[in-house]
């Protein structure tokens, strides 16, 4: 059998946590006199916590001493944690559970590849933690997407060669990371924004079984771009 490895990003793919990141960053930015917009929040998708704060400071034309920077990162995360503490299974995005069911039924390994350091907390909250054979997240990597480190480590953890892995991602940086890793990149979201992906779907309900069957039996090099 042709075994593929399936690697899922978390934020924006399994759950919509961007809204909580937004609220927490907005409050934080306001506390230091910076206005933070929804549009700017879009640009933080897939980006680490530290890089996010650096960008916000840059947009607000501010520099901070290291200890204050660390304090603000903690403040933001405490606020974010208070939002995610209320999450439950209802926040799993449409079609996610079904695709996880399908992949595990076909006995293909599943990994998480996320920039978040809160991934395990979130997966526990939405009761999906046991669905993953490996979890590689912000705690296991030194280089942020578009560097492929997170996905290569995830592939390694499930013992599947990179060119036999399929990555589901909602961020441009994540799609670029999957492409650099020589994996099959599947964008979840807007096809114009995610135009570098091998395939793009609005959400998982648009991914049908025949597409997955074809994906599983075909080599990356032979997959036709849509
Ligand atoms: C990514 C999100 O998955 O994780 C980013 O898209 C976020 O918006 C990053 O900044 C880090 O998350 P956390 O939970 O470690 O602050
Ligand atoms: Mg994401």
TrEMBL record:
Domain of life, per lineage: Bacteria
InterPro entries documented for this protein: B-phosphoglucomutase_hydrolase (IPR010976), Beta-PGM (IPR010972), Beta-PGM-like (IPR051600), HAD-like_sf (IPR036412), HAD-SF_hydro_IA (IPR006439), HAD_2 (IPR041492), HAD_sf (IPR023214), PGP-like_dom2 (IPR023198)
Transmembrane segments: none
Isomerase among keywords: yes
Swiss-Prot/TrEMBL keywords: Carbohydrate metabolism, Isomerase, Magnesium, Metal-binding, Phosphoprotein
Cofactors: Mg(2+)
EC class name: isomerase
Enzyme Commission number: 5.4.2.6
Keyword presence, Isomerase: yes
Catalytic activity: beta-D-glucose 1-phosphate = beta-D-glucose 6-phosphate
Similarity-based family: Belongs to the HAD-like hydrolase superfamily. CbbY/CbbZ/Gph/YieH family.
Family annotation (PANTHER family): 6-PHOSPHOGLUCONATE PHOSPHATASE, HEXITOL PHOSPHATASE B
This protein's name: Beta-phosphoglucomutase
Protein source organism: Snuella lapsa
Taxonomic classification: Bacteria, Pseudomonadati, Bacteroidota, Flavobacteriia, Flavobacteriales
């Amino acid at each position: 059998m042709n075994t593929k490895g399936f690697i899922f990003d978390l934020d924006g793919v399994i759950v919509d946590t961007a809204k909580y990141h937004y609220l927490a960053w907005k409050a934080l930015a306001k506390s230091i006199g910076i206005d933070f917009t929804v549009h700017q929040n879009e640009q933080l998708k897939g980006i680490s916590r530290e890089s996010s704060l650096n960008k916000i400071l840059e947009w607000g034309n501010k520099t901070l001493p290291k200890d204050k920077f660390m304090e603000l990162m903690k403040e933001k995360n405490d606020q974010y944690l208070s939002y995610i503490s209320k999450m439950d299974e209802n926040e799993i995005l449409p079609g996610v559970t079904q695709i996880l069911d399908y992949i595990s039924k076909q006995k293909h390994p599943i990994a998480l590849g996320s920039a978040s350091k809160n991934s395990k907390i979130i997966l526990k909250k939405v009761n999906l933690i046991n669905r993953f054979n490996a979890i590689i997240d912000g705690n296991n990597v030194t280089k942020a997407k578009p560097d492929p480190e997170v996905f290569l480590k995830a592939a390694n953890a499930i013992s599947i060669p990179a060119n036999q892995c399929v990555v589901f991602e909602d961020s441009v940086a994540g799609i670029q990371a999957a492409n650099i890793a020589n994996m099959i990149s599947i964008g979840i979201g807007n096809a114009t924004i995610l135009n570098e992906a091998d395939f793009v779907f609005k959400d998982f309900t648009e991914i049908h079984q025949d597409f997955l069957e074809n994906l599983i039996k075909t080599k990356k090099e032979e997959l036709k771009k849509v």
